[in-house]
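job 3f2a | input accepted
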Amino acid sequence: MGSTGLEVARTKMRDEGVDKVAIDTFAHYYRLLEHGETGMIPESSIEPLDMESLADVDVDDEVAAEAIRKTVVIKLNGGLGTSMGMNRAKSLLCVRRGLSFLDIIARQVLHLREAYDAPLPLIFMNSFRTSADTMAALSRYDGLAVDDLPLEFLQNKEPKLLLDGLLPVSYPKNPDLEWCPPGHGDLYTALRGTGLLGRLVDAGYRHVFVSNSDNLGAVPDARVAGWFAQSGAPFAIEAVRRTPSDRKGGHFAKRRSDGRVVLRESAQTPPGDRKALADLDRHKYTSTNNLWFDLQAMQETLDARDGILGLPLIRNVKHLDPGDPRTPEVVQIETAMGAAIEVFDGARTIEVGRDRFVPVKTTNDLLVLRSDIYDIGRDFVLDQASEAVPYVELDGAFYKLVGDFDKRFPEGAPSLRRASSFTVDGDFTFGHGVTVVGDVSLDATSAQRIAADTQLRQGAT
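job 3f2a | predicted structure (461 res):
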């Protein structure tokens, strides 16, 4: 028997129909939490990591083609975009020409199937909040499902725990808020618990490529698939050089005690090590969350560990209702899927171009994606049309929520192809055909309108 809090949580999960593998995994992390585990990775325990670059790797065309024919694509699609004011799958956001993230992902895969004569199954890991909307949007694509494989499987859910006492929270006002996802490390638990992992192995697939649905740069590229196949690695993650916008994010490092590669998230960094976290010269690489794994190796490892991969704990403290600081503080037990890199012997990292990492976490990112920085070709792959992606910072008071953002760009995003940076402080509405050149900063204390076809040049205020 476990503690009272754990037993109450187990019962709540069973009553909700949560899979047994997920309940056992939750119990594993609950015990760690109960015994004071924080999941912190001190700077003193790690050292910087260097890695090879895809640009320097030779991959034979036939090796690449054969690898992509044995690859399954999984897109993480559980996010609602709540930080941008959305209440449905973020991947339904319009990106360009009336196409959403989901539209572009589906068309990327359909193009690659034809180009390589590959089955290339596409499967979404949805949450209980994103499943219905996502499947409705994908229903327009005949033939997207492959053989008898599903287009989706569901991420598990777990109870939020009161920070004081670790009991599952009760919130009759909105029972949905009593639950949270277990982080994207749940990928492995859900694959095994649903039986999908075994089905993919039995169907003869060798590799899985996983990425976030809000990252349209994460195309299942045959060359990367070929590199992974010929490396013989059981697990790999694509990395990019960190930029100033990544200072607060996670990074790769090497653990001093055993030489293993680890992925340290910001939530796992002690307060005293924040300066080291932000040091781009020391910790050069961040994760794209594009990862590859060998299906057989994953199945064997999970079987050997009774379904619990043993990823590092992430203890995430939030308010019960994220939008209401008056609600009690809760603990969300989470894991990161990239942390599996430290589980597998021979796991690899590889530096890729920034074009494979185009995440949309804020409306700043959305403005860049909707602008002319990227062209979308017939293969539906993003092609960067400018030498560099400009830094964009929009006033959160007026642009943070998608609805407010759309009102202020009613006729589309400005041209950013010649911009170095674009900062907006205040309430501006933009007309059609606005162009930004160089470093532009707008500042106003009252609502302003930028007329159609205006060219905003360096030094504008």
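job 3f2a | The first strand starts at residue 46 and ends at 47.
job 3f2a | closed
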